[in-house]
Task: structure prediction
Amino acid sequence: MSSNPRSSSRPVSDPEAQESTAAYELFVDHEAALSFLNAQENFERARPKGAGGQESFKLQRMHALLGVLGDPHLAVPCVHIAGSKGKGSVCSMLSGCLQASGYTTGVFTSPHLVDERERIQLSGESVSEQEFDRALAKCRDACSQIIDEHGSPTYFELLTASAFVVFAEQAVDLAVIETGMGGRLDSTNVVEPVVVGLTAIHLEHTEVLGDTLAQIAGEKAGIIKRGVPAISVPQPDEVLTVFRQSAQNASATLKVLGEEIVYTYRFQASATRGPHPRVCVGAMPGGYEHLSVPLLGEHQAGNCGLVLAILLELIERGFDLPERRVIAGLAQSSTAGKLEPVLAQPRIYIDGAHTPESVHETLRAAGAHLEYDSLVVVFGCNRDKRVQEMVDELERGADKVIFTRSSATPRAMDPDQLRDMFLENKKYPGMVHVESCVKDAINSAARAVTGHDLILVLGSFYLAGEVKSLILAAQEKPQPAQN
Result:
């Protein structure tokens, strides 16, 4: 086994790759780059229609585009992550552990909260406007060579290709790549990973991925590659059956936390953090023992366990990841969009929970980790979600609910409909309010709370991102001069 973790990757100094991307025209400015990007077809905002929507997704165009660019996705080793919930948490924790161990990382995730550049991270920081614009310009100009045969790349395909260009140019030690939706036909599924990670599978994107756990698991398992080790968090039997069959078909090894991999966790209270999970992963000696999970919620134990199991696989491939550095890296994990505090007074937290299971887990985590008298939930979701199940979860944790809709997506559910669904068979309608826009919803919530109450925004990354954007804009606004 080579001690160089990059020994099997394609050199970034490949002359053909450099020649293929040497000539391109820069955008006038960053606004011009975003204008071009946002003019492309965007399935995140408007889902494709048709038989499952699957005919709208294919990988031939991505392979063609990347071929013109010199195949930057093959220039650095990567870890590929798929699943319904927890992907962003896994990417954040994994990147933090690698950085603390001295490695440079590239992370590609989606969606973003405020700025598209959040999707492309270099060692924990969003890529600069200059780097983002330059990579996107290369991808735009490469499109001209494939458009006649393959059509115009989508918003997500261009972002994915731009991320690969940035990571290759920066020669990162490892790229952590999150699938956008599904896996088998996702634009990221052109990579040749060294490890594959599979997070919890929920019913989601059913109009595209299928309406059973087994069907969705089959799409997620599409990232399993021949001979590449795959690791999964604990899953329902019907999901694991699909995963195991997919791994067998690909001549790959599937390891499941708590089965093929030693995995345990327990809750432990401390003076500084209160009750939180601690996990053990891997057989000792050589595993990780009693490491504190940095993100809030019992559900994060499995995500942290998956990260540690991936690190053990990377160690087998020559990475040096001592436990003390891993612990330091976990402690630095980003909370963006994961019970993230965005304002101190009134106290406002945001979360991208968008399935019934994740809404349940988020409310439970808030109750376990955040002290408050009353909880006011600002909720909005997309109409293609399991809406009734999501709103039913709110009654179990919220003292008051304010329904609204994000202006960032045409798929947003009408808040009056959300209210009606919530109130069906409910005895206490006084706890519900509707605001037509997000700004009014936050202002209404702020008027409803006192000093030790909490406002929690959830139901959609679009909603969470819009709230964060509004708060950041308010904080940046010049204050009137004092007399």
Observations:
- The CA atoms of residues 380 and 397 lie 16 Å apart.
